[in-house]
Amino acid sequence: MSQPLTATRPTNAATSIFPLRQPPPPLCSFLFIIVLIVATFYTLHHPDATPPLLFSHNALTLRRLFLSSASNATISSYLRALTRHPHLAGTKPSLDTLSYVTNHFQSLGLDTHLAEYEALLSYPAHISVAARFSNNTTVEFDLNDGPGDDDVVRPYHAYSPSGSAQGNVVFVNHGEERDYRALELIGVSVRDCVVLARKGEFLGRGGIVKIAEAKGALGVLIYADNDGGGFGGIERGTVMRGIGDPVSPGWPGVVGGEKLSLEDDRVARRFPKIPSLPLSLRNAEIILASLGGARAPVEWWNSGRIGSGQRVGPGQTVVNMTLQGELTMKKVRNVVATIRGSEEPDRYVILGNHRDAWTYGAVDPNSGTSALLDIGRRFSVLLKSGWRPRRTVLLCSWDAEEFGMIGSTEWVEENVLNLGASAVAYLNVDCAVQGSGFFAGATPQLDGLLLDALKLVQDPDDVALTVEETFKSQNNIIERLSRVDSDFSGFLHHAGIPSIDMYYGADYPVYHTAFDSYDWMIRNADPLFHRHVAMAGIWGLLGIILADEPVLPFNYISYAEQLQAHRDALSKLLQGKASVDPLSMAIQEFSLVAKEAQDEAKKLKEQAYNKNDVAKRRELNDRMMLGERGFLDSEGIKGKEWFKHLVYGPAAEPESKLGFFPGIADAIATNSSEGMIEHEIWRVARAIQRASRALKGGFT
Question: Which residues form the Peptidase M28 domain (predicted)?
Fold first, then answer.
């Protein structure tokens, strides 16, 4: 069994409800100071060489000090303070969380500044949904799900157009293309109707509305099967297409900068043309029970709450839905705290989380915010003990993520050149704790690093195990980051920065509802905040390792193996319809270069440290850092050109069947010609060749 670096629960800084073991003695701090004294003395007398074991011991002690300074009561206090009021981006209460985060970092002595932008945000002024049934009775549905707090925004879809829609109701299951094909087979059309859809796993609310609009629907109602944890919660969200400020597409929305008009096609195409609103499960079931018409297709049965007797309409049930929205320019403020590197201050390791929430945000996102604040506190403990990271560390609190990753996207667009030249990695945590079980997504060269970090942290639910051991027994899958649902998207998909995204718990029932509160957290997801402590430990350790290791712990052999697996899956899907030979040759070359880079890294790690190797390490690190950038293509993904990554990125077509190679996936999904599919294959092959050249270095 792997032994975590700390075998005790986190210390408790104050009296609280949390039962804890005795805190560990301050031996780690003492040892760390002794090691620093010895290291300083040795360096003064032996400037050209430092024993590798001394650095190893120093790193081990540092990591122990970081882990032993954890406090679940402290994280709980952060979360409690952050979630006292709803704090939707652009509203007055959001300024309180801005001040709280800013003051926290400043109180720790961290260099802290705001990065401000102006963005077009969307709010509801009036919403209503009423239904008339076959017996001529009518119901005005209650669209409030809050506990009476006037600051809780009413459930709505941001960027849905204002207007009313009235029509017969048709149930469309998850609203995917295949669901409409199933309806067509039983003679059901949604033209001039209001569609009712239940949110599924593969298609977001924006995609549901986009397809319904194309099918001729007048409006869309969307509900979630989970009923908001039994409270009647209603899931808010955005239906904007793409990410970032819609009136500054492709450039940063800096204060006083260029803003397009709402009539500009580049803006208008970001928004749906038909209104949509969210419904609670309870209200949706009232409508579902009233529907006549044909029976639901058999493939929909036993999925969620849909049975064999379910009718899909259109019958005599008529819905009238109204949304009056407000589009207004608002200040978006990111908080950036900087810990300047001692040896490579121009290389950056970035940890990020957004702080804005649809309501109280205890899970999404402030479980992650509280973990980030605790990492800042623990880093300050290390700094006071004499630690200085080799590379610069940025702790970033993003704004307006819920509207479409706006804060982080504008920051990436403003800093894209500097990021491309100097960003080592981006580490994202959105919802730190949703429930039990560790989950992660990453670019493949970071897989080994992630697993190594998991070995060092005690499992929050089984003190006899490490997180790595439970992860391998329960999940053991590191996902790939083609999805666009958190702030890593701009870093990876647009700027080509190696990235990790992590969270505890696969799902949770109060997502984007008024019940995502501190009380729900302590009663359901993490009563003792042990999972928060574990996530902060993993996240912070990853930052420390990436900031401090002389040779970056990247493994591009893992990337080569993953590319080969993607090629094999693509070949199987194509069934000979197009040649994948260009991919095969490009991946073969990439594999050889990855092996060379790994051998070079191993040699530099094993040999005695001396300053003559500084240039060699720097040059290798830069090549490994830039390898990911090779997968970017200036033309981007067809139909989603802002997204540049040709290996991992969002497919433009909802029917795409691959979670990688988005351009190829779209060409297959749209039944493109063999020539078009092969063109997309060649584009990916060229991207892999660019990555090989970046990793190899030099020129042809």
Answer: 334-519
